[in-house]
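Per your request, structure below.
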């Protein structure tokens, strides 16, 4: 059973690292703020959670599992808020192409 958990942990670590790499490349290569914001949140959060799962499967001690769970909760709580603030600041500063927006819910609030 330990060998199976070790292999699953290794697989989760590799998958998380690849997703985090893809997110980093996306942040560097995507052309607009909205695309970069998407790359910085969705695959990055999933990559970090997979890395944490891989660590949990490898370490297996209660103290480590508690810390890993805490890191995962904070990641899930802070990444969407940071993306929202980045998007709002980009919108207010005029760095977003409004043609890319499907629905502009803030159009009536513009100064």
């Amino acid at each position: 059973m330990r060998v199976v958990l070790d292999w699953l942990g290794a697989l989760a670590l590799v998958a998380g690292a690849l997703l985090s790499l893809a997110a980093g490349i996306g942040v560097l290569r995507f052309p607009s703020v909205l695309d970069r914001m998407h790359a910085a949140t969705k695959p990055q959060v999933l990559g970090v959670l997979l890395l944490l799962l891989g660590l949990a499967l490898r370490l297996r001690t209660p103290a480590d599992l508690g810390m890993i769970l805490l890191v995962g909760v904070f990641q899930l709580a802070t990444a969407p808020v940071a993306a929202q603030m980045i998007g709002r600041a980009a919108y207010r500063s005029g760095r977003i192409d409004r043609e890319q927006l499907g629905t502009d819910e803030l159009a009536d609030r513009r100064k």
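Residues 62-92 form the longest helix (31 residues).

Regards,
D.
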